[in-house]
Amino acid sequence: MNITKLSFLALLLAGHASASLITFTDQAAFLAAIAPGYYQETFAFASSSFPVPLASPQSLSGNGFSYQISAANGLASNFGFVQAANSPDALIVSSFGGGITALGGNFFYDNGGSVASGTSGTLTASNGIDPDAVMNISTVFPEGHFSFFGFISTSGPLTSVSTFRTTTNSNFPGFAGIDNLIVGTAATPEPGSFALLSLGLVTLAYFWRRHSAA
């Protein structure tokens, strides 16, 4: 069995155990669980060395996928990433096109290019079907560029992913930032993978019934 089959089986089993929004903090594992042809945005247009206002929303697309990034009081470009222009604002990725079921990237908090020490928040994914999946973020710029967070929805396309600052300090308020955003779809299994998964579930059910009857 190849790695793609194993990744898909692990993904399905994880989804069975924890509803249908699966979280990742490892980029390699996330990429192994999504289909080829994903779209990665590096925000090369946001290469200024200080915050520059951007219109909100920003519409981005590639490889048949599209989405918008927005914040209530506008966006800013900074050091090659996009951030909320106002520190308390949530940074929202939504208006997905192309049936996006997988999203991951570097999410963090920034203070105008310096470390937003003591800042933390939440990253929330929604698909409109299952309870939201929430992860805690305490990474800061520039270290945050190496911290990966991702989601895969196995019950339908994603509807939104947002990050919101929950704690801060007076010296480093922290602006929600995002970089290296990847969107795509969950990997499609080969027919044999479904057969193997079905056999495994039937076997588990059989032993569970025997254990319950004992």
Walkthrough of the structure:
The chain is α+β, with helices and mostly antiparallel strands and 214 residues long. The chain contains three helices and 15 strands. The protein is globular. The two termini are 35 Å apart. Residues 1-6 and 12-18 have low confidence and may be disordered.
Summarize the topology.
Layout lengths: L2 H15 L3 E4 L2 H6 L6 E3 L10 E3 L3 E5 L2 E6 L4 E4 L2 E4 L6 E7 L4 E10 L2 E2 L4 E7 L6 E5 L10 E6 L6 E8 L7 E10 L6 H23 L1
Antiparallel strand pairs: 1-13, 2-15, 3-6, 4-5, 5-8, 6-7, 7-15, 8-14, 9-10, 9-13, 9-15, 11-12, 11-14
Instruction: Tally the beta strands.
Output: 15
Class per helix and strand makeup: alpha+beta
Strand content: 35-45%
Radius of gyration: 19 Å
Strand-and-helix sequence, N→C? HEHEEEEEEEEEEEEEEH
Keywords, please?
single chain; nine-stranded antiparallel sheet; about 210 residues; alpha+beta; six-stranded antiparallel sheet; 3 helices
Concise overview:
The protein is of the alpha+beta class and 214 residues long. Helix content is 21%, strand content 39%.
